[in-house]
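pasting for ref
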Amino acid sequence: MYLIYNSSQLETLCEDINFTSNFTKHIKQEFLYLRDLNDHDNEGKLFDLSNHGYTIVVLEPNEPLEELHKLGICLLTNGHDSIEYTMATQVDGLTIFKICLMLDNEHFTMVYSECDSQLPIVEEWLAKKAEVSRL
């Protein structure tokens, strides 16, 4: 599991060969969007999402269920009280799941996973949640 708060951590993710370039490109775009939205002090490379109430979490392939539980996502109890939304996005033929957790009114955690990279139970849960959020 990767926690992304700054551009250095983002670059480390982009170098990981376990992820497709389309996936890391999408995560980079999400990071830059949040940076542009919140970087009122023009911190540039020093910008840190955690100073603005955001965390980006990227699930590695076959992430253990225990790691999801640490985030507060429990598949057996139908999710998490703090799930704001779950969605599936198509990017150049790749499906990316995004879960937005709203921990309180000032803290958001965005969790990303490439489709077909997790355990079957996780994939089924993500697909079901993403489908429900579109309705």
